[in-house]
Design goal:
The structure holds 2 protein chains of 2 kinds.
Chain A lengths: L1 H6 L1 H20 L14 H36 L4 H35 L6 E13 L7 E4 L12 E3 L4 E8 L4 E5 L7 E5 L5 E6 L5 E6 L10 E4 L11 E10 L7 E7 L8 E9 L4 H28 L13 H13 L56 H5 L5 E2 L42 E2 L20 H6 L36 H6 L24 H4 L6 H4 L7 H4 L1
Antiparallel strand pairs in A: 1-2, 1-12, 2-5, 3-4, 3-12, 4-5, 6-7, 6-9, 7-8, 8-11, 9-10, 10-11, 13-14
Chain B lengths: L8 H4 L6 H21 L8 H13 L2 H17 L7 H19 L5 H26 L8 H23 L7
The chains are: A alpha+beta, B mainly alpha.
């Protein structure tokens, strides 16, 4: 047995060493834990890595210190040519940037306020920690950077590492005085990016040659070389909108046939990095100090804006022209107000020369309107209703009767004066005053324009079409008694003091509404049909329902005062 | 061919080195590999820790020492990367064992022998590394024959120069 071990000692040692390392690798690559419990390395592995880095870091730091010293001597004492001119240029650049800063800060604050209103949480970079690169992994397959800042300096795992040019990677491992940064060019890295122009989202990771690429992208002809690529913020590591690089070229994905990979030329020079910035504070809430700064800045901006307004007001000519003609009261008031307040008011259109119903501010208030009422004045065929009074010829229009040569011409009487529609109860109670003069069972008819008759006889009232029209006042009725103006009949409660009429008789239930002569022969006060229930009255000029053609008989005490004028008066 | 085979007792004798050289040389190799690659990215095609492992294995001519030295250097190199500890350790353990075993049988003082050994070991190291990363860890690794051959050639040239420099640290026999 002893001879076996001594004979195969070398092979056994190799097997033991390899077996131990394989077991160690297997332990390290076991199933990952959830993210909240995950750590890059277990305790033992972390200790070994920590020792190894501590062994390698001192010589790296020493070499870095030596190199920095040499470079410092050269830069600070030897290479100072044109420094004075550069200083002047930089000062001018600072002055220019200060001017631009004001507008940018305002836009940024406005954006933050709007995002706060929209409850849009976006992470901002609030604090960064500069760090120096002291080493790399030294391997082609592992894109790892070592920085000289660790947990003692506030560096944590998964903190983004950037440069002013673009992103570099994220912190993978943290030690007390150093950290490891996983570059975006590493195959195991991942960052959410978006193509700035085409807005195509993807995942950025490195390929085998150390070049970052956006993998598994659908082929798109819009992707062009040179298109900027920025971070999307979806990885919860990098802030949104940071520069990643530009599109280098598009190559087909070897593992996923229809998809392509977009190779990226990184914005940060990953091959020659000296200093980086570790974002140690990033959130969506502003700190109290920042709030105070914002308030002060806003106050200063408001004061500056007010001052600018005053200067502008002094320089601009007066807006009031003394030679200008006088305007209406409303515009004068506006001008006075605008002048007094120093605020430019919106311009108003001039007043219409011929106002109509489309003219602004001519529509009455909604509470003053009655449902079903016609508001627009009717220019033709409206406004007059031939009253079917007791005399049969009363239905003859005035103009037709006056024509002596036998040609009868009816002309519509336009009623320019509008009145608010009146409520007419349909239960046989007292009608409004505008309808008091109307005889019972009168059919509202409307004289159509230019209806001529060659026979010279009177116009047949049966051809008239009844339409609802606005009511007219009682005074006009008394002035022209035979003409009953339009009205609107609506349902509603009885007016106060109105009395219900007796139910109509059977004879009244069979009226002949379309025969004006019959209606005219009826005596006033004849009981007519009493309509109950709601009544629909179209206001579009069409014929009303039959039930409306027979109107309830007004109360005697209300209809009596209406005196029919003599026929001669009508003519 | 005969020159490659060890012909004398002197050629197979273990070369004595100061202990500090065994400690500082691997550390310096790791430090240079890490630091120079920072400013010259193409420098990572070299594998200085592997060259140091090969050198000490073929000069010590002890497979156990070569295996353990390769394991330690490899694990230290793993510590600088993102991969699990042991990948480079396994590769360099095998390389150290093979280099020490061959150092017993062949003349390692010749530059030609060293060049051929270095070329073969670097290529073998790349193959074992690809096998472990691609098959054991299932991680992406692009294998390129041309790239690996160029890599082996460059390491061979640098290795011959490095070995000559390390020979200066040999303790003189009086």
């Amino acid at each position: 047995m002893e001879s076996f071990f001594s004979r195969y000692k070398n092979a056994l040692v190799l097997i033991v060493v390899l077996l131990a390392q394989v077991i160690g690798v297997a332990i390290q690559v076991r199933r990952p834990l959830p993210k909240e419990h995950a750590q890059p390395d277990a305790g033992g592995v972390r200790l070994i890595r920590y020792w190894a880095i501590n062994l390698v870091s001192p010589p790296e730091r020493f070499v870095h210190w030596m190199g920095a010293g040499i470079i410092g001597v050269w830069d600070n004492y030897l290479d100072l040519i044109h420094v004075r001119q550069q200083n002047k240029d930089l000062q001018a650049e600072i002055d220019r940037l200060r001017i631009e800063e004001g507008g940018i800060v305002e836009d940024a604050r406005q954006g933050q306020r709007l995002q706060q209103l929209l409850a849009f949480k976006e992470k901002y970079v609030y604090k960064t920690l500069p760090a120096q690169i002291i080493g790399t992994s030294g391997s082609e397959q592992s894109r790892i950077l070592s920085i000289n800042k660790g947990s003692k300096d506030g560096v944590g795992v998964d903190m983004p590492v950037i440069t002013p040019d673009g992103i570099v990677g994220r912190v993978r491992e943290v030690f007390p005085h150093s950290s490891q940064v996983l570059e975006i060019s590493d195959p195991t890295s991942g960052a959410g990016v978006i193509l700035a122009t085409t807005r195509i989202r993807g995942i950025l990771r490195g390929n085998g040659l150390g070049q970052p690429q956006v993998v598994n992208i659908m082929p798109d002809e819009r992707i062009k070389t040179g298109e900027p690529v920025i971070t999307s913020g979806g990885d919860q590591i990098f802030p949104r909108g940071m520069a990643v690089g530009v599109v280098d070229r598009v190559v087909p994905d070897p593992d996923h046939d229809p998809l392509v990979d977009v190779l990226i030329r990184p914005a940060a020079n990953l091959s020659q990095l000296d200093e980086v910035l570790v974002i140690t504070n990033m959130g969506d809430q502003v700190t109290p100090n920042q709030k105070l700064d914002m308030m002060q800045s806003e106050a200063a901006a408001d004061a500056q804006q007010l001052k600018a307004s005053e200067i502008l007001a002094e320089r601009l000519p007066s807006r009031i022209d003394p030679d200008a003609p006088q305007t209406d009261d409303e515009n004068s008031d506006d001008s006075a107000d605008a002048e007094g307040e120093g605020i430019a008011r919106p311009m108003r259109p001039p007043a219409a020369l011929h106002p109509d119903r489309f003219t602004p501010n001519t529509t009455p208030a909604a509470d003053t309107l009655t449902p079903g009422a016609r508001l627009a004045p009717q220019s033709e065929g409206t406004g007059t209703t031939t009253a079917a009074v007791a005399k049969p010829h009363a239905a003859t229009p005035l103009s037709s009767a006056a024509n002596s040569d036998g040609d009868t011409t009816e002309t519509a009487t336009v009623m320019p004066k509008k009145k608010a529609p009146e409520v007419v109860p349909d239960d046989g109670s007292r009608p409004p005053t505008t309808m008091a003069m109307r005889p019972a069972a009168s059919t509202p008819t409307t004289t159509l324009p230019a209806v001529s008759s060659a026979s010279g006889s009177e116009t047949n009232p049966a051809t008239h079409v009844a339409i609802p029209r606005p009511a007219i006042d009682a005074e006009q009725n008394t002035a022209a008694p035979p003409v009953v103006k339009t009205r609107v009949i609506t349902d509603g409660p009885l007016p106060s003091g109105a009395k219900k009429t007796t139910p109509p008789t059977a004879s009244a239930l069979n009226p002949q509404p379309h025969v004006p002569t019959t209606q005219a022969q009826k005596a006033p006060g004849t009981p007519t049909v009493q309509h109950k229930g709601p009544e629909l009255v179209p206001d579009d000029g069409s014929r009303p329902p039959p039930t409306m053609l027979v109107k309830p008989k007004p109360q005697p005490q209300q209809t009596v005062p209406v005196q029919q004028p003599p026929q001669g008066d009508m003519q | 061919m005969a020159r490659l085979i060890a012909a004398s007792r002197h050629e197979v004798e273990v070369q004595p080195y100061p202990l500090i050289v065994f400690i500082l040389a691997p550390l310096l190799a790791l430090g240079l590999q890490s630091f120079v690659s920072l400013h010259f990215q193409r420098f990572d095609i070299l594998d200085l820790p592997l060259l140091v492992t090969i050198y000490f294995a073929i000069t010590r001519r002890n497979p156990v020492t070569g295996t353990i030295a390769g394991a330690i250097i490899g694990i230290a190199q793993d510590a600088l990367t993102r991969q699990p500890l042991g990948i480079f350790g396994i590769c360099k353990s095998i390389i150290g064992y093979l280099a020490a075993s061959l150092g017993v049988r062949i003349d390692t003082e010749s530059h030609l022998t060293r060049a051929l050994l270095t070329f073969g070991f670097v290529f073998l190291h790349s193959g074992m590394y690809w096998l472990l990363v691609r098959r054991l860890l299932a991680q992406p690794y692009v294998w390129s024959w041309v790239h690996e051959l160029i890599r082996a050639l460059i390491n061979m040239v640098v290795g011959v120069i490095l070995f000559a420099l390390l020979d200066l640290a040999k303790q003189k026999e009086y």
